[in-house]
Amino acid sequence: MGTRIPTHQLSSGLYLSGRPEQLKERHPTLSSCSVPYTGGDPKKSGELAKMFEIPAVDSNPNPKPSRSSSTPHQNTGSVRSGPNSGQATRHSGSGPLSRKSQGSGPMPLPTGLFTSGPIGSGPIEVSGGDGRRSGNLDRPGSMGKPVYGSGVTSLSEEVKVGFRVSRAVVWVFLVVVAMTLLIGVFLMVAVKKAVILVALGGVIVPVVVLFVWNCACGRRGLLGFLRSYPDAELRGAIDGQYVKVTGVVTCGSIPLESSYQRVPRCVYVSTELYEYKGLGGKSANPKHRCFSWGSRYSEKYIADFYISDFQSGLRALVKAGYGAKVAPFVEPATVVDVTKDNKELSPNFLGWLADRKLPTDDGIMRLKEGYIKEGSTVSVMGVVRRHDNVLTIVPSSEPVSTGCQWFRCLLPTYVEGLVLTCEDNQNSDVIPV
C-alpha cells in the first residue's frame, strides 16, 4: 500500500503538498521613530546619555495619546517620538556649541561625541592669570602668552660672544704689563724724568685701546666672519663635517607664531620690551645703566625646521628644538615706540602688557619683534649627521672661533651652539613654499 502524501489548502482555495507551516511567535519590534535635534547636549541624546550615566531629558514633558493608534507610545530611556507625533521641536538648550565649553574636561561635540579637551589646534595660550586655554575659538586679536611644549627651545639668554684667547697668553700679558708698570714707576722716582712716564703711557695706552676696540666691534667682526664663511654643498658633505648651508626654510612639525603681530608659520620668533633709564629712573634689569636702554622682558622661541640647500637642492632637518643650544643673529624691528611726546598706549599693546603682568607706567618703552618666517632665506652653521639617507644639522659640541683678524685688529672671538643668520628684512617678501 502506497504512502499518502499529506496536502493542505490555502485560504485562496489552492492545494499544496506537505503540512501547513506553523506560525512562530514574533517578538515585538520597535517602529521607526525620528530622533529630535539635540544640538550636542548629551542629556537629550538618549542612549549616549545612559552610557555616561547622565539623566535624560524628555523632549515632550506632557505627551498626549494619539487617537489613531490603539496602544500609546511610552518614552523610556531614549527620547523618541512616534510616527504620528508630528515634527520634533527644538529646545532652547540646543544649538551650536557655546564658548563656555572651552575649559578642561570632557566636551560634547554637536554630533554627541566627547573630546578630551577644547576644540582647536595650535599652541596653547594662557590669557592672564586664570589659566584659561584657548584654541581656534579664542577671540580675534588675543594677546595671550603662548605656552609650548618640550619640542620648542626657549632662548632665555642673549647670544654670548667671547674672546678665544688661551689662559697662558693672558697670564703672560698681565705679568708683562705689571712688570712694565713697576719698572716705569721705579725709574720715574729714581731718575725724576718725564720721559719715563711718556714711555710707560706709550705701552699701556695701545693695550687699553685694543681691548676697548675688541669689546665694541667684536660682535660686528663675528658677523663679518659668518658672512664670509664659504657655503658647503649638502650632497658632498660627510658625517661629522662642520658646514654652512644657505637656503629656504620650511616649518617642521611645530610652527611658531609671533606674540604681538601674530605672524603665522615661523621657525623662530622673538619679542623684547626695552625701557630707557634716565638719571634716577627705574632699572629694567640689575645690569641696566643710566642713559641707556635696558631689556625688561624677553621671549624667544625656536623649533626644528627644514632647510633646502641652494646649491644641491637637498633638504635637511635642522635640530634646533628640544633644548638645543642655538645662537640666532636676527635683527628685530621696532613695532611699538613710546616716547615723551607720544605716551598713548594702543589697546593691543595694553593687552599684551596685561597678559604678561608688566606695568603700564609712563616710561619710555620700545617693543621689538623679530622672526624668521617660512620661505625666508637663512644660513645655518652646524655639524652634518647622516642616518639612513636622512640629513640632519645639529649644534657643534665645540665653539666656533673666528681666529685673529689682523687687518681689523680683532682678537679671536667665539660663539657656541647652532649659528643661525637671516639677512631678510622683516617687511620683505618671502619665497612662497
Automatic annotation (TrEMBL):
Residues 1-145 are annotated as: Disordered. InterPro entries: At1g16860-like (IPR040339). Residues 59-72 have a biased composition (Low complexity). It comes from the Eukaryota. The keyword Disulfide bond does not apply. The chain crosses the membrane at residues 168-189, 195-217. Keywords: Membrane, Transmembrane, Transmembrane helix. Residues 1-14, 73-92 have a biased composition (Polar residues). This is Ubiquitin-specific protease family C19-related protein.
